[in-house]
Write a structure and sequence with these properties.
This is Winged helix-turn-helix transcriptional regulator. The chain contains four helices and two strands, in the order H-H-H-E-E-H. It is mainly α and 76 residues long. The protein has a single domain, classed as Arc Repressor Mutant, subunit A. A hairpin with a 2-residue loop joins strand 1 and strand 2. It starts with 10 loop residues before the first helix and ends with a helix.
């Protein structure tokens, strides 16, 4: 399944941002998948979109953190 580009955030993207906002360390797809109940593949796809929108950053390969813009988007 290909990633869809959209202007607003999907519920899945909001779940991912909320999960990242709760963690105090960079997280991998599997960690985020466990927190959100999504598949690792779905998380990976949504993270690419969130990163391109500036809501998440990747300080190390395969690890993600929420940005200030991402926090603002989910009110965290």
């Amino acid at each position: 399944m290909a990633c869809k580009k959209c202007t607003g955030l999907t519920e899945e993207q909001k779940k991912i941002l909320s999960a990242l906002a709760e963690r105090n360390e960079p997280s991998g797809c599997k960690d985020i998948a466990q927190l959100t109940g999504l598949s690792s593949q779905a998380v990976s796809c949504r993270l690419r979109s969130l990163k391109s929108k500036g809501y998440v950053d990747s300080p190390a390969k395969g690890k993600y953190v929420i940005t200030d813009a991402g926090r603002a988007e989910v009110g965290a």
